[in-house]
Amino acid sequence: MPIPPLVTGPQRSNVSQMSSPSPESRPAILLDAVEKRFGDHTVLDNVSLTVGGGQVVALIGPSGAGKSTLLRCINLLERPSAGTIMVDGVTIHVEHVIKAKELAALRSRVGMVFQSFNLFPHMTVLRNVALPQQRVLGRSRAEAEERANVLLKRVGLGDKARQYPGRCSGGQQQRIAIARALALDPKVMLFDEPTSALDPEVGLEVLCVMRELADDGMTMVVVTHEMQFARDVSDHLVVMAEGAVLEEGDPHEIFAAPTRPRTREFLRAVLDRR
User: What's the CA gap between 42 and 151, in Å, rounded?
Assistant: First the structure.
């Protein structure tokens, strides 16, 4: 079953630079032979991935494929069992001892938005976005709040700065979480199913903000079940199952003619359910 466009207007280019980035344009993210095991259970099996600067990569696949674990390995919220991770020039060989300054350097380059919003309910929206800047970046309160106001306006919530998260809708709270992540000036943004806990209409607000970030050139890796977003907004599509990459490439080509039977099975299931 074909899927309609996510939004109207010009489509992002789906020309991929993943396979052979030029020497001048160092990859924003490089994963080499990443593995993750929990005891005898292999969650990620020899996963390699290259993300060029300014690209949007969508990770799709059945539940339990390892997509969220892969995302958490990029900023070492989960430490891989093997492999190498590079983010914006910071390289981590996970078999070696990881120094605190190396971990801090890598995480300073990565912003992450989860399924849950993780906002402080006792703080205003403004303070939720400003406080991390003061704690992590050492900005003054005035500077942090100025930056927070700019970002809240960017995600369409400039009028919510003085409210508390509990007075905001789920979609608004997720947009606050995006503003909070952006406030730390990351080089790349990771999104772990950011609309899965939202009603479809509310989730569209979040997807529109993400599309604007993509159009502005933010490097993004997005775990998503939103097939329209994966097809129409991402530059590169990665299909995972059972901890491994099944296939990857141009999103429109994969949606139109997947090469692997498991990919065809997955896409048929999610598209026929619509």
Answer: 40
Strand partners, 32: 84
Chain segment 63-120, per-residue pLDDT in tens: 999 999 999 999 999 999 999 999 999 999 998 888 899 999 999 999 999 888 889 9
H or E segment at 248? strand 244-249
**How many angstroms separate the CA atoms of 154 and 246, rounded?**
36
Q: Please state, in angstroms and rounded to a whole number, the distance separating the CA atoms of residues 207 and 112.
A: 15
Residue 101 tokens, joined:
């300054």
Pinpoint the alpha helices (H) of 96-199. 100-107, 125-132, 141-154, 170-182
Using a 10 angstrom Cβ sphere, with 0-12 exposed, 13-18 middle and 19 or more buried, the burial of residue 176 is buried
The 3-state DSSP class for residue 202 equals: helix
Query: What share of the chain in percent tops pLDDT 90?
Result: 78
Q: List the one residue out of 127, 120, 116, 101 whose CA is nearest residue 183.
A: 127
Q: Which two tokens stand for residue 59?
A: 């990770």
- Given a contact cutoff of 8 angstroms between Cβ atoms, the answer to whether 93 and 84 are in contact is yes
What share of the chain in percent tops pLDDT 70? 90
Residue identified by tokens 């074909």 is 2
Number of H helices, E strands in the chain: 9, 10
Output the pTM of the full model: 0.87
Q: How far apart are CA 13 and CA 45, in angstroms?
A: 30
pLDDT in tens, 17-45: 334 444 456 799 999 999 999 999 999 99
CB atoms near residue 81 (< 10 Å): 16
pLDDT of 25:
64
CA torsion angle for 43, 49, 55, 57 (degrees, to 10)? -30
CB–CB of 224/230 below 8 Å?
A: yes
